[in-house]
């Protein structure tokens, strides 16, 4: 995979984006700028609230604060560039800018998959083994799990970005997306990428299947436990688990849809990726946290409002 002397080395890529129509791009800018700002506001507010309120210093909220941090970073990797390109005639990105975007995109995406899996296990322990919850999910265990999922994300990202960087790029420069990702970028390489495509499908499949099995097992045990107990608190637990499972299914569904067939491109790919990078980071705090009564009370306290301790 060497570049011959008569080949031109690509120094920048052109992002085709979501649309080439100026009016459509302006509408998209007006729509997604507030979404991005709300994503930053809600997730940062959640992190500050959890740090501020000592009653939220529990394993569940520790992982939720990690999720909010990841969502801020995940959306920031792609959305600001997308918003800038909506107002630009030329949507270019340097070669190294593209590779850096791929690297951080996969760190946060893969880490979030692992985190959602750990959060499902945390809910399983809390509901099915409540008497041993604080022993099993001790501070040390939570820190080890957090370190492990971040390490897994870094290793996964290094592998994918490393392969993309080593490929020679000497021909077409147009990336058929609004951000750099491994599948559309390696299609531009002047080399056979069959082995890399097989690796992407394999590693994405393993991660998705493993996470799916852990999630299904955790929530299956949770449902069995809830069915065997009194109705008190059952509705709240079922509602929480259903919301969590919905988010996880959407997230894993995107990973399977995009990365388990990287050599094939569908017209809907951009829409799926847009939802994944711009909308999901805003939905996560709403589904996971802002519907939670403990979080609502903590937010009211943080904002200086009077909180009724008897309520809920």
TrEMBL record:
The chain crosses the membrane at residues 26-48, 60-79, 99-121, 141-165, 194-216, 237-259, 271-290. GO terms for cellular component: plasma membrane. InterPro entries: GPCR_Rhodpsn, GPCR_Rhodpsn_7TM, Olfact_rcpt, Olfactory_Receptors. Residues 42-288 form the G-protein coupled receptors family 1 profile domain. It comes from Sphenodon punctatus (Tuatara). The keyword NADP does not apply. This is Olfactory receptor. Belongs to the G-protein coupled receptor 1 family. Gene3D superfamilies: Rhodopsin 7-helix transmembrane proteins. It holds the Pfam family 7tm_4. It comes from the Eukaryota. Its main location: membrane. It is a multi-pass membrane protein. GO terms for molecular function: G protein-coupled receptor activity; olfactory receptor activity. PANTHER family: OLFACTORY RECEPTOR. Keywords: Cell membrane, G-protein coupled receptor, Membrane, Olfaction, Receptor, Sensory transduction, Transducer, Transmembrane, Transmembrane helix. It is found in: Cell membrane; Membrane.
